[in-house]
UniProtKB/TrEMBL annotation, chain A:
Catalyzes the NADPH-dependent reduction of beta-ketoacyl-ACP substrates to beta-hydroxyacyl-ACP products, the first reductive step in the elongation cycle of fatty acid biosynthesis. This is 3-oxoacyl-[acyl-carrier-protein] reductase. Its EC number is 1.1.1.100. It comes from the Bacteria. The active site is at 152 (proton acceptor). Belongs to the short-chain dehydrogenases/reductases (SDR) family. InterPro entries: 3oxo_ACP_reduc (IPR011284), KR_dom (IPR057326), NAD(P)-bd_dom_sf (IPR036291), Sc_DH/Rdtase_CS (IPR020904), SDR (IPR050259), SDR_fam (IPR002347).
From TrEMBL, chain B:
Its main location: cytoplasm. Belongs to the acyl carrier protein (ACP) family. Keywords: Cytoplasm, Fatty acid biosynthesis, Fatty acid metabolism, Lipid biosynthesis, Lipid metabolism, Phosphopantetheine, Phosphoprotein. This is Acyl carrier protein. Pathway: Lipid metabolism; fatty acid biosynthesis; Glycolipid biosynthesis; KDO(2)-lipid A biosynthesis. 4'-phosphopantetheine is transferred from CoA to a specific serine of apo-ACP by acpS. GO terms for cellular component: cytosol; membrane. It is found in: Cytoplasm. Residues 2-77 form the Carrier domain. Pfam families: PP-binding (PF00550). GO terms for molecular function: acyl binding; acyl carrier activity; phosphopantetheine binding. Carrier of the growing fatty acid chain in fatty acid biosynthesis.
Amino acid sequence: MFDLTGKTALVTGASGGIGAAIARTLHQAGATVALSGTKVEALEALAAELGSRAVVVPANLSDPEAVEALAKDAEAKLGQVDILVNNAGLTRDGLILRMKDEDWASVIDVNLTAAFRLSRALVKGMMKRRWGRIIGITSIVGVTGNPGQVNYAASKAGMIGMTKALAAEVASRNITANCVAPGFIATAMTDVLPDAQKEKLTAGVPAGRLGTPDEIASAVLYLASTEAGYVTGQTLHVNGGMAMI
Amino acid sequence: MSDIAERVKKIVVEHLGVEEGKVTDTASFIDDLGADSLDTVELVMAFEEEFGIEIPDDAAEKILTVKDAIDFISSKQG
């Protein structure tokens, strides 16, 4: 089950905790993976760890030309891209009263517009081959909202809407588009928080703990699989019951 | 048959999986050859690639038959 042998996948933000777990999981299922991100050393270390069937395709997603170049680079190195995982994302938190235009724009550019550009570039080949998977890593806050994150929440809600429209456009070509929406996940970012804060975070989670990057990666693997071919336009929430939608 | 017409028809046959005989000059992509809206966009993109031209959206909307496509491409290449 969930065998990706012979498939190729491009994962953006692959140097982060969740992105690296997604890349490892898809690779373990047999896929050849292209690792994208800005931290070249971390990407190369991950590629070395994976050994064969892994290539590094660095890109700065805030640059429109670099996004187009990334699509070409990934197709050149993988031969074709069957699975696109739009995972890269950044935060520029602040209350709306204090949020600068550039904080808004940079978050929308990387989290949403880059995902649009990559999807546009790579869906073409998927349509020709009559098989494809486009998976967006959104966030629980794209559905529930969160103070201090109007930009981030907008980008993640935008990704869900984009995914639904895209799913409707390409469903007849055997291409699915879905989102995975993580809740609180234990990454390098949350590791450094004091215990008291961690307790506060988990208090609102019925499962009583933070999620792991592997639990997000497993959801991505399912949506990437041939078995999930009839699932499209959906958002799979992986949040320990924190929000039941 | 001109070279352009031959290449256009070849793309249509390959793309829509229809018999060559059905791809006449007057054949409408949607009404006669069973194309859906996504097929027509894919065809336009295939023409752009094959002939190294750009077909703007307003021109693409007017390409409804095989002949429309041949005429438009010929005008660009002429």
